């Protein structure tokens, strides 16, 4: 009898809680119908008034501030070769569609993460770069940018940006991108900080980022 009485009390309390929740949700629904529909105010910048040279200077400033290197080049192949030699990068992986005159290296053929971990660096092109944030966007549906894995596993990423693909704002970049494409947005080398604010690099991607701006 006590057990049944206890069960009945629990059941009643449960029903009261359910009814209270339903009542609150119904009141919220009714309140929403009385609201005026107001279009959101979008006061953020949707375009940039900077000149082409100013955009490139701003992009360089942001990328260097992220502790990446930035090189302007009219000869991509020679610049990449110099970076490889300067930093003793011996084993390089590249996406299959990378221009052959940029670098002679091993092409990615769905290499495993373990295989990619044996490479010193990866060289890719890029889709667009955002000057105001110093962000580089890779579009992994492009054969010259390859799979996301190859841009994340090797410890060094040499990324080429075409000067004509530099835009001022995030909005301009988004307008150029297909939301259905698989993308990676890069703002400097991989880094994070612990509770004592000590910077740790290479946690979830390359610890070294070398950006080459193609002026050709």
Portion of residues in helices?
25-40%
Structural class based on helices, strands and sheet pairing: alpha/beta
Largest sheet: 6 strands, parallel
The oligomeric state is single chain
**What is the CATH superfamily label of the largest domain?**
NagB/RpiA/CoA transferase-like
Along the chain, the helix and strand elements come as HHEHEEHEEEHEEHEEEE
Number of helices: 6
Beta strand count: 12
How many independent structural domains?
Answer: 2
CATH domain class name of the largest domain: Alpha Beta
Q: Please state the overall shape, judged from the principal axes of the Cα atoms.
A: globular
Strands in their spatial order, largest beta sheet: 1-12-7-4-2-3
How much strand content do the residues show? 15-25%
- Supply Rg: 26 Å
**Chain-averaged pLDDT:** 88
Amino- and carboxy-terminal Cα gap: 89 Å
CATH fold-type name of the largest domain: Rossmann fold
Uncertain spans, ≥5 residues at pLDDT below 50?
none
**Any idea what the CATH architecture of the largest domain is?**
3-Layer(aba) Sandwich
